[in-house]
Structure formats: structure tokens, C-alpha cells
Write a structure and sequence with these properties.
Strand order of the largest sheet: 2-10-9-8-5-3-4
Structural class: alpha/beta
CATH topology of the largest domain: Aspartate Aminotransferase, domain 2
CATH architecture of the largest domain: 3-Layer(aba) Sandwich
Order of helices and strands: EHHEHEHEHEEEHEHEEHHHHEEHEEEH
Number of helices: 13
Strand content: 15-25%
Oligomer: single chain
Radius of gyration: 20 Å
Helix content: 40-55%
Shape: globular
Number of domains: 2
């Protein structure tokens, strides 16, 4: 097989991986019950609590990508016939609703035009329900969803709040406990600068109590949080062969996050993402997400008018400049790009290279 090329990853994910994380991945693999690995896994749990801003004991990494985290969150808290409300403002809201239906939930969707935030009051008015699920950072549209007031409303109605933070964790402010979130999941390949393959997740005591009270077994054996916590907890009961190399890589990625500091990391994404969006606007790009609700780390953009086939321009950016950006989805399909500036890709030198490359292919 020929040598794989080196790219600057500025699409909707994955993002560039930190050099020290790549170095960890090159080290010898440990067994999944090796005492040294179990000690490292304990540290990962503690570090994830800090990054999620939660005291939840049940905080760990699902062996699978962000979509596995989504499925783990929903399959545990939804039983057949449960009333489930899902906010839909893009592709990943649609995916939440689809998985909830496959779990047997009686799903009610609160939908808005892609690119717009869902008014919080509409979500609150849909309560009570067994579960309310929303996407914090919608990767398909570049929209940031407000969570303000949802946790309080869910507590008052006995509703479990599930939040998709795949693109937001480590990139924009998120506090699980402060927001009153019951289940929150993410992915390693976006703002955490680790390859795809793990889904950090956290469950509140209320969510776990709901799982214990289930009248039917969790429909997924692999993603059953009751079984997973026996492996990640003190029992260390064998469940599956954990991807030890990836968990070691996540440990290093989390170390980098905490050494930088969450607020500094959030500010880096805000500053450089803002600079990118200013440059894109100057080149004639228009944004799908409304002003005031745009993610700094993921810009969903319409290409300038009369630019020609977006696929040709995107391929030229890849072939001539070694830069990957993502195709558009929904209203952006065939008309725009999704441009990520996440984690290790969110650096001043990489921003300059990205802007120069885009300017060259659209001029």
C-alpha cells in the first residue's frame, strides 16, 4: 500500500491529532485488565469529569465513535412506549429521533429550519416527557443551541435531559452539572484532538436510577450502562476487550486540554474561529447559522456566488494544498462547505494556511 498523505483536517471531523497523542499511539499495547491500564483508565474517568464539568461517578469512554455514544445514551434511558421529545435543527437531531424510535420511544419532534436555533420555550412547552434530547452543537449547520433553562424545566417535570456534545466538548463552554444534564456524550475526534473511536459519556444519578427501574432489559448488550459500569467500576468485571491504545491516547488528549485550561481552550476556539469567519465573509461566503448562534469551531457556509462546482473547488483544495473541508448537508448540499477549526487544527499557523488555500481556490 502506498504511503498515506498528510492532510490539514479542517472539515466537520476528524480534526488534526496532537503530536504527543500520536506518540502515545505508537507505544506497546497493554491488556485491558492490566493493572497499569486500569490505573490509567481511572485517571481518564477523573479527567473526563473535569472536562464535562460534572461530579457524576458514572463517567467513562464508550468503545465506539460519537454515534455509539448517542446510541448508548438513548438505549439506556428509553423503553418501548416512552414519551420522548427530540429537538431537530439538523442532521444529528434527525439521528437522535431515529435512534429514539428504534429504541421503541413514542417520539415527538420539535423542528426548526436548519441553521436556526430551537427556541428553548418550545422545548419546555413540550414537557413533560420521559426524555428530552437536544444537540448542543449541530455539526451539519454550525449552530449553537442554547440549553438555558432546560435542566430546571426537566427537573420540575421529572424528565431526563440528554445532550449531544460531540462537537462542543472542549471547544465551547459546557457544564453538565450546571446545565442540569442527565446524560451527555461526545466524541474524541473533534475538539479533543484524538482520533475517532471513543465516545466520552456521563450519566447522572437520576439517569442511572431510571435505568435500574426499567421494566425491560436494555436493548443493546454492548451499550448497557449497567454492564459497562461493572467494567469501568471497582468490580472490573470483563465486558468487552477495551481499545487500550485509544484510551491511552484519550488520556494524553485530556492531559493537553487540562494543561491548557478549559477557559483558555474555549477562548482559543472563539478567537481563531471568529477570525476565520471574518475572512470567509470578506471572500463572499455566507453562513447558514444565524448570527449570535454560530459555532466558532464549525462554520457551515454557502460558497460565494458563481463559484462553479463546489466539488471541484473542494478537491482542488485537497490536491493542491493538502487541506480537507467538508461538503454541505441539507440546504448546503452542492452549494457550500462545512469548515472546522477544532482542537489541534485550531492553531494560528493552520488558520493562516487554511485561509490562504481557500482564497486561492475561490478567487
Amino acid at each position: 500500500m502506498s504511503k498515506l498523505p498528510v492532510r490539514l483536517l479542517c472539515g466537520p471531523g476528524p480534526s488534526d491529532v496532537a503530536p504527543s497523542v500520536l506518540e502515545v499511539l505508537s507505544r506497546p499495547i497493554l491488556g485491558h485488565l492490566d493493572p497499569a491500564f486500569l490505573a490509567l483508565a481511572e485517571e481518564v474517568k477523573t479527567m473526563l469529569r473535569t472536562v464535562f464539568q460534572t461530579a457524576n461517578e458514572t463517567t467513562f469512554a464508550v468503545s465506539g465513535t460519537g454515534s455509539a455514544g448517542m446510541e448508548c445514551a438513548l438505549v439506556n434511558v428509553i423503553e418501548p412506549g416512552d414519551d420522548v421529545v427530540v429537538g431537530v435543527a439538523g442532521l444529528f437531531g434527525l439521528r437522535l429521533a431515529e435512534i429514539a424510535r428504534r429504541c421503541g420511544g413514542a417520539v415527538r419532534t420539535i423542528e426548526v429550519e436548519f441553521g436556526k436555533p430551537i427556541p428553548v420555550e418550545r422545548l419546555i412547552q413540550a414537557l413533560p416527557a420521559k426524555v428530552l434530547a437536544v444537540v448542543h452543537a449541530e455539526t451539519s449547520t454550525g449552530m449553537r443551541q442554547s440549553l438555558e433553562g432546560l435542566g430546571d424545566a426537566c427537573r420540575e417535570t421529572g424528565t431526563l435531559l440528554v445532550v449531544d456534545a460531540v462537537t462542543s466538548l472542549g471547544g465551547i463552554p459546557l457544564s453538565v452539572d450546571e446545565a442540569g444534564i442527565d446524560v451527555c456524550y461526545s466524541g474524541t475526534q473533534k475538539c479533543l484532538s484524538v482520533p475517532p473511536g471513543l465516545a466520552p459519556i456521563t450519566f447522572s444519578d437520576a439517569a442511572l436510577e431510571g435505568v435500574r427501574r426499567r421494566g425491560t432489559p436494555v436493548r443493546s448488550w454492548y451499550l448497557d450502562v449497567g454492564l459497562l459500569t461493572q467494567y469501568w467500576g471497582e468490580e472490573r468485571t470483563y465486558h468487552h476487550t477495551a481499545p487500550t491504545g485509544m484510551i491511552a491516547a484519550l488520556h494524553e488528549g485530556l492531559r493537553l486540554v487540562l494543561d491548557e485550561g478549559l477557559e483558555a481552550r474555549w477562548q482559543r476556539h472563539q478567537t481563531l474561529g471568529g477570525e476565520l469567519q471574518i475572512a470567509l465573509a470578506e471572500m463572499g461566503f455566507r453562513f447558514l447559522a444565524e448570527a449570535g448562534h454560530r459555532l466558532p469551531q464549525l462554520s457551515a457556509t454557502f460558497l460565494p456566488d458563481k463559484i462553479g462546482d463546489e466539488r471541484v473547488k473542494r478537491r482542488r483544495l485537497l490536491d493542491d494544498f493538502g487541506i480537507e473541508v467538508g461538503a454541505g448537508f441539507g440546504p448546503l448540499s452542492g452549494k457550500g462547505w462545512r469548515i472546522g477549526l477544532m482542537g489541534e487544527s485550531c492553531r494560528p499557523d493552520k488558520l493562516a494556511r487554511l485561509v490562504d488555500g481557500i482564497r486561492a481556490v475561490v478567487s
